[in-house]
Amino acid sequence: MKGAENLENIPTWIPVVALALSDASGRWLMHQRPPGKAHAGLWEFPGGKVESGETPVAALVREIKEELDYRLDPETLVPAAFAQEAGARPIVILLYTSRWTGGELRACEGGMVRWFEPAEICLLAKPPLDVALARSLFEKVEV
Q1: Are strands 43-44 and 28-32 parallel, antiparallel or unpaired?
Q2: pLDDT tens track of the chain, all 143 residues?
Q3: Is residue 49 a contact partner of residue 14, using CB atoms and an 8 Å limit?
Q4: Contact in structure between 68 and 107 (CB atoms under 8 Å)
C-alpha cells in the first residue's frame, strides 16, 4: 500500500507546552529542574508533554496544576513563541503567556520556582530550547 509507506517516512515529533507566567512587577516565573531529571539544575519555563488526545492548552493547564498546584484559566493563555530541536524525533515547545492572579506556587515535582526580571532570565543556565524561547519572548515584550 503506497500511502502507508509514505506515512512511515513522516518524522515523529514530541509536542511540549510551556508557560511564561508574569506578575504585576514585570517578573517571570522560572522552574529549576530537580536532581535526577534531564537538564537537572537548569532553569526552564514550566510545562510538559502534550498527551495523546489533548490540545496544547488543555495539556498546559494540566501540567501547571501538576507541577505548580496552580489553576490556570485557559482563556488567559496567549501563544507567544515556539522552539524546536533538530533530530529524528525532535521536541517542539509551544510557549504561552499568562498573568499571575495570585496564590501560592510550589514546585510539586521537585526543584524550585522563583520570579526573575527578564535580564536575570537571560543570564540563567537554561536548556537550549528555553534559551531560544526566552530570546523570542523578551524580543516581543517590553523589558
Answers
A1: antiparallel
A2: 455 556 566 668 999 999 999 999 999 999 999 988 888 999 999 999 999 999 999 999 999 999 999 999 999 999 999 999 988 889 999 999 999 999 999 999 888 999 999 999 999 999 999 999 999 999 876 54
A3: yes
A4: yes
**Long-range contacts of 118-124, Cβ-Cβ distance < 8 Å, separation of 24 or more:** 118/26, 118/28, 118/143, 119/143, 121/28, 121/30, 121/43, 124/30, 124/42, 124/43
Task: Identify residue 44 by its one-letter amino acid code.
Answer: E
Q: Which three cell numbers stand for residue 52?
A: 495523546
- Supply the pTM of this predicted model: 0.88
Closest to 47 measured CA to CA, from 86, 15, 76: 15
Domains of the chain, each with CATH number or no CATH: 12-140 (3.90.79.10)
Classify 52 as helix, strand or coil: coil
